[in-house]
Structures are given as structure tokens and as C-alpha cells.
């Protein structure tokens, strides 16, 4: 037992020394701060700026309205011209529709007259045919006796048979009237020296041609109205965009800096305010030259916030080296002079954004560890 006591003592001392040296010699940053990109919000048009009062550090959501720019001098000449052309085109459509309604009314009137004419024309022919058949029936007995006498005379003397003129004429009248009745029922009116249709029907046919032409004009006019209305709508949108522009937040973040005062006149592209983009979780740290030369982009690391025990996984995203002031021009937290004298490292820490206990912790400090330490299992 006395033999093992010195050995155990040596092992414990060696272990303690290993822990102390391992903790002190592991790669660790001199300082580290939670950082984020700064987004500059600019005006999309020229005009008078209207910004609601908002305290610095206030949270803003993506798409939230930040300000309004009104331009009372926007050019509306093209819009007014399109409105006038559209009004003229709509008036033309109304005129064509009115003409069509009048033509349809006339066409209906002529159709009614044609129908009435057809009815009475058929009745007239039927009446004539009725009396013609009656006249033929009266003449036919006399015709039979005349034919008998003519036959006897022909047997005694060689003479030409006598023609019965009235019966033949009656039969011709009946045949012609029957033909005229069939034609009238088919819509064709026979007669000497005039057309096969009444003037009302002829006028109705001309009106049908005029109605077809007006319907074609109406289709063309309505298409023109549709085209002009689409152009007017686009121009109205353009004028609205130029005359009153809504400035919205491009990201979820916090109100960082005011660059223009409320009520001033701004030009297109002028910066209005700055926002910190809280959707991007960065940690900027400085390390010694020895630690820096052992790192490469993509290496894993851990980050610990000051006064918090939770450890966050991190990944090296950029190695900017010494004097890296330029890379901080678009970041919220600028480096100190001592930071610039060391070697700059930027890390991505996505768990900072998803931690419910942290609300965009830009500016909070901590330390970054690039190697495993002997007491990590206790942490």
C-alpha cells in the first residue's frame, strides 16, 4: 500500500496539471460578440417622406410598413390620355349597341309585316283558287255537251273540232293559282313584273346585313375597350407607385439607425433608415496568431455567451486575418482597436436564432472555443 501511494499521488498531480494546461492551452478566442448584417432601407421614388415615430431598437417584421413617400409632382399625362381614349372607346361601344338595338327593333317590325303579308297573300290566293275551281265546275257540264255535239258534227262533215275556250282558261287559272299557293307557302310570291318577296322582307334582309356588320364593329370596339382598360390599369399602377410609395421592411430585425427626418424631401435611392437583420446569426471573434493559423473555413467550434451556461455549436465561415476593419462596414457591431490588432474570425451560430430565451441578441459578448477541453464533459 505504501508503494502505491506515491504512484497515486503522481497520477493525481499529473491529471491536475493536464486539466489546467489543457484548459489554458486550448484554442480560444480573446473576445467574441454576436453580430448581424445591417440593411439600409432606401426610397424607391422621390417625394415627401412620412415616417411614424419608432424608438431605436424596436422590432420590425418582414414586409411591415416603415415609411411612405408621396410625390405630388408625378407625371400623369399618359394616364389622362389613356383615360380619354378609354372614355371615347366606351362611348363608341354604347353608340354601336344603341344602333344595334334600333336595327333589331326595325328588323322585328319588318318581320312582323312580312309574316302578316304572307298570311294575307296565302289567304288571297286560296280565295281566288276557290272561286276559280267553282267557275271550272260550272263550265265543265257545258263543256261535256259541247264535246258531244262536236263529235257528231265531226262524223258528218270533215271540219276541225271546236275548242272550248272558257273551260281551258278556267283550268289554266286553277293550275296557276295552285302553283302560286304552293310557292307562297314556301315563302316565294309569284307575279308579273315584281320580285318574289315583299318590300318589308327585302328591307329585313338588308337590315340583317347591317346588323351583322354592327355586331362585328361591336366585337372590335369591345376588344379595344378591353385593351385600353388594361393599359390604363398598368399606367395607374405605375403612377400610384411613383406618387405614393410604401417603404417596407426587407427582413425581420430591429430599428437600428435613422438616416432621414420625417417630412423631408428625398430622392429616389436615398437612404432612409438602417435595420439589423436578425435572421442571420453571426459571431465575430479575434484570436491569437498561433490559434488563427490552425483554423480553416468549415471547422466546427463552440460558442458560449457570457453569464450563460448553454453552449452553442458554431461553424467557421470567414477568416479575415489582421486589420479586418473593412469587413465590418456592413455589420452592426464594429470591432475595437485591440480586436483589429489580433486576427479576425467569423462564425455561423444558427442555434442563436432558434433559442426562445434569446431575442435577437446582437451586441452580446462571449467566447469561442475551437478545441475540446478536458472539462467539456462537466459543462
UniProtKB/TrEMBL annotation:
Residues 142-154 have a biased composition (Polar residues). PANTHER family: MEMBRANE FUSION SUBUNIT OF EMRAB-TOLC MULTIDRUG EFFLUX PUMP, MULTIDRUG EXPORT PROTEIN EMRA-RELATED. InterPro entries: MFP. It is found in: Cell envelope. It comes from Thioclava sediminum. Transmembrane segments: none annotated. Residues 140-167 are annotated as: Disordered. Keywords: Coiled coil. Residues 72-99, 204-238 form a coiled coil. This is HlyD family secretion protein. The keyword Coiled coil applies.
Amino acid at each position: 500500500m505504501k508503494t502505491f501511494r506515491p504512484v497515486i499521488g503522481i497520477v493525481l498531480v499529473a491529471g491536475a496539471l493536464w486539466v489546467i494546461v489543457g484548459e489554458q492551452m486550448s484554442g480560444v478566442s480573446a473576445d467574441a460578440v454576436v453580430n448581424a448584417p445591417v440593411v439600409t432601407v432606401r426610397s424607391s421614388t422621390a417625394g415627401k417622406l412620412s415616417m411614424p415615430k419608432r424608438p431605436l431598437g424596436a422590432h420590425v417584421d418582414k414586409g411591415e410598413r416603415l415609411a411612405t413617400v408621396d410625390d405630388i409632382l408625378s407625371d400623369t399625362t399618359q394616364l389622362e390620355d389613356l383615360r380619354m381614349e378609354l372614355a371615347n372607346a366606351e362611348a363608341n361601344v354604347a353608340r354601336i349597341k344603341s344602333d344595334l338595338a334600333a336595327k333589331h327593333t326595325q328588323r322585328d317590325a319588318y318581320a312582323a309585316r312580312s309574316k302578316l303579308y304572307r298570311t294575307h297573300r296565302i289567304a288571297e290566293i286560296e280565295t281566288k283558287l276557290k272561286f276559280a275551281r267553282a267557275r271550272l265546275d260550272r263550265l265543265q257540264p257545258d263543256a261535256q255537251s259541247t264535246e258531244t255535239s262536236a263529235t257528231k258534227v265531226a262524223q258528218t262533215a270533215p271540219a276541225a273540232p271546236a275548242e272550248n275556250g272558257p273551260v281551258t282558261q278556267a283550268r289554266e287559272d286553277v293550275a296557276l293559282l295552285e302553283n302560286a299557293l304552293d310557292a307562297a307557302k314556301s315563302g316565294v310570291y309569284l307575279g308579273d313584273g315584281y320580285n318574289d318577296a315583299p318590300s318589308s322582307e327585302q328591307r329585313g334582309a338588308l337590315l340583317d346585313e347591317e346588323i351583322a356588320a354592327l355586331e362585328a364593329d361591336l366585337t372590335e370596339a369591345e376588344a379595344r375597350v378591353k385593351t385600353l382598360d388594361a393599359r390604363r390599369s398598368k399606367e395607374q399602377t405605375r403612377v400610384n407607385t411613383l406618387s405614393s410609395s410604401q417603404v417596407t421592411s426587407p427582413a425581420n430585425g430591429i430599428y437600428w439607425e435613422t438616416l432621414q427626418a420625417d417630412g423631408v424631401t428625398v430622392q429616389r435611392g436615398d437612404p432612409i433608415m438602417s435595420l439589423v437583420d436578425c435572421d442571420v446569426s453571426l459571431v465575430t471573434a479575434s484570436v491569437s496568431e498561433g490559434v488563427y493559423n490552425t483554423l480553416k473555413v468549415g471547422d466546427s467550434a463552440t460558442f458560449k455567451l457570457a453569464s450563460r451556461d448553454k453552449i452553442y455549436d458554431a461553424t467557421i465561415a470567414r477568416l479575415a486575418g489582421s486589420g479586418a476593419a473593412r469587413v465590418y462596414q456592413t455589420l452592426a457591431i464594429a470591432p475595437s482597436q485591440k480586436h483589429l490588432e489580433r486576427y479576425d474570425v467569423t462564425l455561423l451560430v444558427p442555434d442563436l436564432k432558434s433559442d426562445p430565451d434569446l431575442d435577437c441578441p446582437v451586441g452580446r459578448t462571449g467566447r469561442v472555443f475551437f478545441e475540446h477541453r478536458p472539462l467539456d464533459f462537466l459543462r
